User: Fold this.
Amino acid sequence: MKFGITFWPARRKIIVPLAKKADETGFESVWMGEHVVFPSRIETQYPYRDVDAPLSTTPLYDPIVTFGYLAAVTRRVKLGTSVYVLPLRHPLNVARMLVTLDALSEGRFLFGVGVGWLREELEALGVEYAGRGRRTEEMVTILKRAWSEPRFAHSGEFFRFPEIGFEPKPVHGSIPILFGGEADAALRRAARFGDGWIGVHMPPERVPAILDKLRRLRADSELAAQPLEITVACEGAVPTRALVERYAEVGVHRLLIEQHLFATPDRRVEGAADNIERFANDVIAHQS
Assistant:
């Protein structure tokens, strides 16, 4: 089992020291959620649990810029998005930003993507909500070509451009792409295009049914021979060794723990850092 810490919302005084602590204590990765804006009026319901709409005053930090900084102050921990709202951008801009981060981090970046649940955010940036899934799939195709082909042109439903060159290529030949989402369309997307899948706020009892779907869909895809890495974010409390074992038994490869679960009543960074180190000693150190 691999372990990651997720930061949402992220603040510099928290993410920098705790990412360093994760790097020092055996965590495999640190992760950031992502949005560009939260409109003042939101009617879209968050799809994963019953929570209030986010406030438009929520501080938002770009994960790619943040990870560029963290790459310089950490040595081994991987840096992942959970998840990046891909259809809000142009794929060539994304390809350039990510290959830069990949180079600066020496291949430590994991690209978790989603199509976006917040209609009002997509519309604020001029992106059609109904077409966001097809747009995302086309974008992923372009990203993979940019990272693997010396020259290519593209003519699709959403993007068209003449033959271009794209250098450099990723450090390890490609950048892993993990898809979030539990809807049937999201699972099909992960199976057809992904190196992995991300589930959020998910107890181990819910995992097997989703993995059964993913395995069937993967078997019918062009990537059937390639493994699909399963990442799940738990909720409620920092997991015990017994709970970690349950996640492993149902097929989870990486367990994400939200940063706030390590917080102490006084909310001091030092207390959270101590809890992170305690978890590393009590749980991570005992993993085979």
In short: The first strand starts at residue 2 and ends at 7.
